[in-house]
Design a protein that fits this description.
Length: about 325
Amino acid sequence: MKKLIIWALIIGTLAYFGSKMLLHHKIESSVDSAIIALSPFASVSYDGVSSSLSGELTVDGIRVTIVGFNDEITIDRLGIDTPSFLSLLSIADIAENIQSPDDVIPEYFGFIAEGIHSKVDADYIEKLYGMRLQSLNVSDSEEAANKCSGKYGYSPTTLLGLGYTEQVVSLSTHFRRGNGQYVIDITTSTEDMWDFDAELILAGDMVSELSRGVRYRPRMKSMRLEYTDRSLNERVSKYCGQLGLSAAETVQAQLDSLHFFGEENGIEFDEYVVDPYTEFLNGKSAIVITAQPSEPISLNQIDLYKPSDVPALLDLKAEVY
């Protein structure tokens, strides 16, 4: 019996490492092919591929230089998260099972990107910010309140004024299947700035809904958003003060930014969001916004309603702590 146990352990170990080597080889071949396809647009290199028994598979140490720009983007880890190593092996074979993805996709899976590093004054950041201003038809010489509050996004100059030299962003998106519904969990953070967690519960079967492609019309059952300040509010208050704004003017500038965000997304926030958000700006560390419509609502149809009616339609509320 003892020998059988030992042989079972040996065979199991060999099978694990053998399948791991095959998995890594398959992924590295796919990544190398993708790098070749991207070569007209960007120069990409990486250190290697990693996987774990817990079900993570990542490409590590990625370095990207976009054609036409000099500054580099680096990513510590980029990959997927599944329930187990066996799930990884199944997903690796998805191309051969494309006719029956329901048999391949596990009950939950996710995409992860950890440690996306970029200098705040990188040339591609400057370009993106300029494109943002152009799309809004506004100038970078806008009043101080718009600059320090990030109404149109934080410019490289403002980020430097806030005390940042580099931004380090991490992001994960997970999909969980359920009976007649599915959940999308999004977690993102920017180092020394903020954390953001979102949970969307959508109606329908996940695989069949997502497989509809451009015809996909997500129907939201509920939503929970949690935003936690990690020093940004204090930095904004200080920087706005340096630009000549009082404490009250700084809060108003941030409220104006909230309303502008609402306008862009077809929502006119009411007191159930504005009042808690004001409290958050005045010293609370986190704000939670929830939506609980009376029945699932298509997210593609929200813009058909008057912006002032959307908060009631979604039963939008906020609380701080």
